[in-house]
């Protein structure tokens, strides 16, 4: 083989390796970019959902009066608390539970003393403060990859989990 042919082969091989490296880099870069964009969308949607639910809670709970909590107001508020509970941080969820307990007492017709009113006000303030903290220090949600159910092993694991759940 002549020197010219060897140089041509080396040039061809280096060009092919460079093209392959460029292709791999492009695919990896596109994957990383797509994942970061998807994570950003998830974060924005989670924050928006939390904001909407908290705003709904504040609108509904601000209409409650201690002397007149009817059935419609009570169940509307409890429903809103349950929605807020799904998107709340653990500390806010705990304060929502305490607030819900006080609302249950109100609905059951417990006599309202000055001490009960103070407990209600403190509980409501605690909920609002924790909600404000949730919105000002929003943590990125843990986005996990959806499991691949097409593999035999994954289907078997899922079937075992379902069997354990319903025993």
Explain this structure to me?
The protein has 167 residues and is mostly helical. The protein has 5 helices and no strands. Helix 1 packs antiparallel against helix 2 (71-87), helix 2 (71-87) packs antiparallel against helix 3 and helix 3 (90-107) runs antiparallel to helix 4. It is elongated.
Task: Annotate the secondary structure layout.
Layout: H1 3-61, H2 71-87, H3 90-107, H4 114-136, H5 152-165
Key phrases:
single chain; 0% strand; elongated; mainly alpha; 5 helices; 167 residues
Distance between the amino and carboxyl termini: 74 Å
Total of helices: 5
Helix-strand pattern: HHHHH
Poorly predicted regions: none
Count of β-strands = 0
* Radius of gyration using CA atoms only: 29 Å
- Overall pLDDT, averaged? 81
Query: What coarse outline follows from CA principal-axis ratios?
Result: elongated
The percentage of residues in β strands lies in: under 5%
Binned, the helix content reads over 70%
Structural class, please? mainly alpha
Q: Report the major sheet.
A: none
In short:
The chain is an all-alpha fold and 167 residues long. It has helices at 3-61, 71-87, 90-107, 114-136, 152-165. Helix 2 (71-87) runs antiparallel to helix 3 (90-107).
